[in-house]
Design goal:
- The chain is of the alpha+beta class and about 300 residues long.
- The chain has 2 domains: about 15-165 and about 290-300, no CATH class; about 170-275, no CATH class.
- About 25% of the residues lie in helices and about 25% in strands.
- The chain has helices spanning about 20-30, 35-45, 60-65, 125-140, 170-175, 215-220, 280-295, 300; strands spanning about 65-70, 70-75, 80-85, 110-115, 155-160, 190-195, 200-205, 225-230, 235-245, 250-260, 270-275.
- Strand 10 and strand 11 form a beta hairpin.
- The longest helix is centred in the middle third of the chain and has 16 residues, at about 125-140.
- It is globular and about 60 Å long.
């Protein structure tokens, strides 16, 4: 399994920022690509430093994230993830009561973020990969996290524990956004359309703006296009939302969502990428699923 994710550093117990991973995912799924501005907020904090004084163990704990990720004991190189949060961590504006708990394989992880370069999922331990990532970040800042850039970097989040969206969440997202369009407000009614992407069904906002005559697909805030893939049982196994750059008919970016229920794990995964990578949706999902499975701590699992 490929485990060469991009390295990064963060404060593992810094309160509240990790909750953006859950909040922006849910907002984006229900409100559309207009929520990308919120995602940009947490991207700006992707290089937080580790504070040894907030760690009960200044050696092992600084090197690895350990815990239970959706029912799987994990041991993750701390450099590959950021915004690490456990069940019971302080919420917004709260201070931790008492010392940081010592983390073990039974500590419930509920969220973390990551960056990875597709398709190699290269690590920042490689000078070339580090340089490439720094260029990517510089471009993001220069364009204010704009969308008209081509990059192979993936910006992802993993949810589990008390942030897990529960069994069947992708089917619920489908039903809440696409199912029974006649009950939706204008500009939020989705209909089926021919898909340009192999293996995906496409749904687009129907109708036109009565003032401008422009298709809602391009002008409705939070609309965008939705792509889904169903598994052999007919359940939604991939849910992708792509939004348009303002005033254009070109995708600004896409966010792909899936879960790991087929592996008997209570884990949700979300990853953002530029539209050029949309045809690679299968490969992206398979590779990152393998990476997450590769975090398993076999030593703890065998106890």
């Amino acid at each position: 399994m490929n485990k060469r994710l991009l390295t990064n550093t963060s404060n593992p117990d810094r309160p509240s920022r990790g909750r953006w991973l859950l909040i922006v995912l849910v907002i984006h799924l229900f409100l559309g690509f207009g929520a990308v501005a919120l995602m940009a907020f947490y991207s700006r904090f992707g290089t937080l430093r580790i504070d040894p004084e907030h760690n009960p163990d200044n050696s092992e704990a600084l090197r690895y994230v350990v815990g239970d990720l959706g029912g799987m004991p994990v041991r993750i190189d701390r450099r590959v993830v950021h915004f690490v949060e456990y069940d019971g961590d302080p919420g917004w504006g709260e201070r931790r009561a008492g010392p940081v708990p010592r983390r073990t394989s039974s500590s419930k992880l509920n969220s973390f973020g990551f960056y990875a370069r597709y398709p190699d999922l290269g690590s920042l331990s490689d000078p070339e990969v580090r340089e490439d990532f720094e260029r990517y970040q510089s471009t993001q800042r220069a364009t204010n996290h704009g969308a008209k850039i081509k990059t192979t970097w993936l910006d992802g989040a993993v949810l589990a524990g008390e942030h897990y969206l529960e069994h069947g969440s992708l089917d619920r997202f489908y039903n809440n956004t696409i199912g029974d369009p006649d009950r939706r407000g204008i500009g939020r009614q989705f209909i089926s359309a021919d898909s340009p992407v192999d293996g995906l069904q496409l749904f687009i906002p129907r109708g036109t703006d009565p003032v401008t005559g422009e298709l809602w697909r391009y002008v409705s805030a939070g609309a965008g296009d939705i792509y889904i893939h169903r598994n052999s049982e007919g359940r939604v196994s991939t849910y992708i939302r792509c939004g348009y750059s303002h005033g254009t008919r070109y995708y600004a970016g896409c966010e792909q969502n899936w879960d790991m229920e087929q592996h008997d794990l209570s884990i949700n995964v979300s990853v953002r990428y530029t539209p050029d990578l949309l045809p690679q949706w299968r490969s992206i999902q398979a590779k990152l699923t393998d990476v997450i499975l590769g975090f398993r701590d076999q030593q703890s699992a065998n106890k």
